[in-house]
Amino acid sequence: MTSISLITIGGELLRGRIVNTNSTHVGSLLRESGFTLSRNVSIPDFPETIRSVIEEEWAKHDVVLTSGGLGPTQDDLTKETLADLFNCKLVMHEPSLRSLETRFAARGYTVSERNRQQAMLPEACEAIPNPKGTAPGMLFQKDGKILISMPGVPFEMLHMMKNAVIPLLKEKHGAELFLHRTLRLRKISESVVALQVEKIQDEMVKGIEIAYLPRDDGLWLELGLRVSPDKKVWAEDQLGDAFRLAKNQFEDQVYAEGEASTAQMLGERLIEKGLRIAVAESMTGGLVSAKIVSISGSSTYFEGSVTAYQIHQKQALLGLEASLFEAHDVVSAEVAEAMATGVRKLFNTDIGLATTGLAEKEKESGRLPQLWLGFADKQETSSRHVELYHDRNVNRERAAHQALIYALEMIGEIE
Amino acid sequence: MTSISLITIGGELLRGRIVNTNSTHVGSLLRESGFTLSRNVSIPDFPETIRSVIEEEWAKHDVVLTSGGLGPTQDDLTKETLADLFNCKLVMHEPSLRSLETRFAARGYTVSERNRQQAMLPEACEAIPNPKGTAPGMLFQKDGKILISMPGVPFEMLHMMKNAVIPLLKEKHGAELFLHRTLRLRKISESVVALQVEKIQDEMVKGIEIAYLPRDDGLWLELGLRVSPDKKVWAEDQLGDAFRLAKNQFEDQVYAEGEASTAQMLGERLIEKGLRIAVAESMTGGLVSAKIVSISGSSTYFEGSVTAYQIHQKQALLGLEASLFEAHDVVSAEVAEAMATGVRKLFNTDIGLATTGLAEKEKESGRLPQLWLGFADKQETSSRHVELYHDRNVNRERAAHQALIYALEMIGEIE
């Protein structure tokens, strides 16, 4: 197996000022292409650290990728280190200089001596174009090994990974297939799932990789199998058997398969059934609506939403009766259902979906975080209760996903 | 300076299935306490890798922190490696076993032989309680060095960092102060800011650390100074001078100081002025509302919102005239202002805020992503145009922040 190390360079990563999404993206792109990232080292941009870590990783791995340390606000540490390592000097790379001049001219700047240095590259490298930014990437090949230096700006790096790095790795190192299938579970904890998977794992083909991925919409249980391309058909069969076994085991908790977002799945189901939806929100405060709108083309099934954050607005906008609030708490099945009915009428849609809940513990009453979901269609209304265990904003995020999942399930039952 | 390495253990990190927020949190907590994380290494949970990387980092650093590799779904690799490294055997840790039994009993499970092993700890370590989960942390001290092994579950690890690790590090290694101030800029790119900072940097005290942090609400320019506690007053003065210099330089781009979220700043300003707000959204689809509600106590100034995703809903709910849409595009200053006025009337608030825009390039017309913001108070209405440069959902996220910043600025002008 090809051993690949990623060195992410930048003090902000270590000071916790920037989340290291570059390593997530690199790991994910490699995985999709059948490779596995063996190690990720994050270091500050100190010359001696960059030098020693690049040397260490180069000695240990077949492929070394670096990101960061090339920008206009940094010195040329990475490049000088690489020139040393590959025993060459920095020379002006004319195409990169011209690209830099064009970009600067467009902004009305002239290229200073310092900026010109961005176009200086180690003589031994092959430049990798960076159409999204100013600093080109660098490819070094020696003794069958590869080192690629990429910029740290996420969308520049991502573009270079997809268009240059992955194709090169595939060409040089072939690639295994990584087949995988995902089961989405709700109302069950990772440790309970793990205990139950243990019971069925012996019945699965050897080599199945199991991943437990806690997400805001529930627990993702991923089954994967890594094989050479000629075994693809056999592996798909085996993976299918294992997947059915797991699906059986978690019958009551499975709410979906695959990796689509909850909003995307809901959108597909609404299109399939030819239904339009509107949303009334209280505790989620617009998050359910925002998730629905995050899907391109949602205007074909989404009419709109109302966030009625106060009781009197629930009355004025959604038409809830004052007597309802005399008989029931604002966080109740009755209010959730009335909100769903109200918003369905207000927007004149097939479906109304509503949330009312407590994002955090209520100080006066001591009531714990919880959620009531309401659903209304032409025939009837219904509701579901969900307990929440985290802090205010994690609870709101999870509540929004639970609302989408609830709608998904209820719409599935409409004939 | 104390050299600290964090080893994050887990294959999901390297497969890009989980974002490495543990390293962000550890980096951030260390920074707040005057420490700096020197290195972060992410590795899969293979015995030989865990062993070799722990040994390497232990040789190089004063403090080694690990997270992950302790859960019920993993083998005891980390613990066995640590027992070997510190020359001891695994023994049953009775308090941890009792805590495990209590937790399992509550769920109706009995503790299996395998689960019991979670309570086995290397004899040489001191157990660190984990009130948030089942696997205790482990503290090893030898030759003036410290090794702490923490669970990988983010909220368990975070709790242990705050309550056990940081206090211990402060006690053992003292701590420098890291003073910092943040300037928030909009409508300017990192490279332009960097060029302008270069011009004034010589006038600042030596040792000022400058960080450029691109965020969804704009560019955060952070000035920091690391000093021993006895130099605090001097350092605050110096940092204040440098901060004023930067503020002067970017006068036209500064929209705020400090690190509060845009929603929090808006909330504080609304409370200060005694004003209540309502929001009408189109392109942002509920995101502006959701951000406002993310702030605890927002019910004192937030009445609610309407997402009117279709023209006919903008008419029906917000009272916009059909003639408006004959004269103007739906993405226009006029529509944004009318939406702001409409939602202000609908919810009977002091302020109405509205968004209408294109989250992505419009296929038919070729119009680029853009945003019109509308603002209405008792006296007048106004609008602002914002260009957007990214993909659908980054644009929506940025648009929501721009709406909050716009409201913040406009409310600042109300007497």
Gap between N and C termini of chain A = 50 Å
Helix content of chain A: 40-55%
Q: Which sheet architecture does the biggest sheet of chain A show?
A: 6 strands, mixed
Radius of gyration of chain A: 27 Å
Question: How many discrete domains of chain A?
Answer: 3
Average pLDDT of chain A? 92
How many helices of chain A in DSSP terms? Answer: 15
Fourth-level CATH superfamily of the largest domain in chain A: MoaB/Mog-like domain
Strand order of the largest sheet of chain A: 2-1-3-8-7-6
Strand content of chain A: 15-25%
Shape by Cα distribution of chain A:
globular
Q: Oligomeric form of this entry?
A: homodimer
What is the CATH architecture term of the largest domain in chain A? 3-Layer(aba) Sandwich
CATH class label of the largest domain in chain A: Alpha Beta
- Briefly note the structural class of the backbone of chain A: alpha/beta
Number of strands of chain A: 17
CATH-derived topology of the largest domain in chain A: Molybdenum Cofactor Biosythetic Enzyme, Chain A
